[in-house]
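Sequence only, no structure available. Ideas?
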Amino acid sequence: MGRAIGAVVVAEVLWTALWLGGSVGAQALFSIDATQPLTNVGLLVGFIAYSVLVSVLAGFVCAVVRKETPMRLCGLSPSSNSFLGSVLRRRHGP
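Reply:
I predicted one. Tokens follow.
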């Protein structure tokens, strides 16, 4: 149980560091005023894509720290038909 908690903490710290670093970098690179709403659609889509990328990376790191097969935790193993099936199989039996 301790390894699972530690894995989540490590993933959360990584996600936070990457998200804040990416946000600050984007603000500096594109001269974004953080006090104003972001109205540029291209930048919004970029932030969403970056958020997805960072989230997947943090989930992968969490699985590695927990010493689980990352793709199985993502529901992408060949034996699973869907993400939901993989999750239910993990929680409710073999």
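DSSP finds four helices and no strands in the chain.
Hope that gets you unstuck.
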